[in-house]
């Protein structure tokens, strides 16, 4: 009995090595470790904070002098109007700007893009440290923090869930289906018929795009989320679904079995999901994430959903996504012509 258990266990381990499942056991802890290294540490060098001040506002001279003295931490930009400050915030030219508080005359109101971001935390901590250094433990200079993206937590997290759904279909569902058709010789048999390679490839692209659109629509129906610029939103979902469906088909062609396809899909899924989704909470991730196609999709979707942005404001992003989709489609077509691992 013990011998049989040991034999079966060793056999299962051998299958795990053969199907590359064991790679996940090694990859996930390594990926978590590397992600933690990208997250800002306590001893990290302090980043300068771009803070805006309105020219016609009456600020306390102590606060103005303190901000000018702390030029290694705060970089002050003077704004003509509050509307200009809001525009600069959306364009990320500044991290926040100060207004005179309506509730407490001696205090200030901080207007930021998002409350739950590492830049907002840095501003609050910087002001707190500056105040303690100048006045000690007196009344707080900041009485309130207002966000331009003033919406509930459900809507704030919606772009992250959209990104997760799109990547899930592109890197988990599609590669496994492609590998299954190869493993069972279904694809090889289909190509013996008058069906051409480009027709099969386009059908798989449409399948991935349809699945992604269905998942997004179902999520919106369940959460009753409304979209201000629905045309821009649908267009960008379409561009993203094309890009990641094409990428998933390419990954499926690199694998012989479903198990290896799922493993390879996870190896791409996590590194594309987490840096983009967590980029607002770490300066390092915010600097690294833009090289990923997932961030080029996540950023515009977030702006469209939370700020009422339009697709015309993100030409480089959709060109980048289309280029990735076209390149991976070309590679998939070449592998299909060569009957790769079939």
Brief characterization of the structure:
This protein has 14 helices and five strands.
Can you describe this structure?
The protein has 342 residues and is of the alpha/beta class. The chain folds into 2 domains: 49-150, 3-Layer(aba) Sandwich (D-Maltodextrin-Binding Protein, domain 2), CATH 3.40.190; 154-337, no CATH class. Helix content is 64%, strand content 8%. It has 14 helices and 5 strands. The protein has helices at 2-18, 22-38, 61-69, 82-90, 118-135, 153-156, 158-183, 186-190, 197-223, 230-253, 258-277, 283-288, 293-307, 315-337; strands spanning 49-54, 74-79, 96-100, 108-112, 142-147. A 5-stranded mixed sheet has the order 2-1-3-4-5. Helix 3 links the parallel strand 1 (49-54) and strand 2 (74-79). Helix 7 runs antiparallel to helix 13 (293-307) and helix 9 (197-223) packs across helix 10 (230-253). Mean pLDDT is 82; it is low at 42-46.
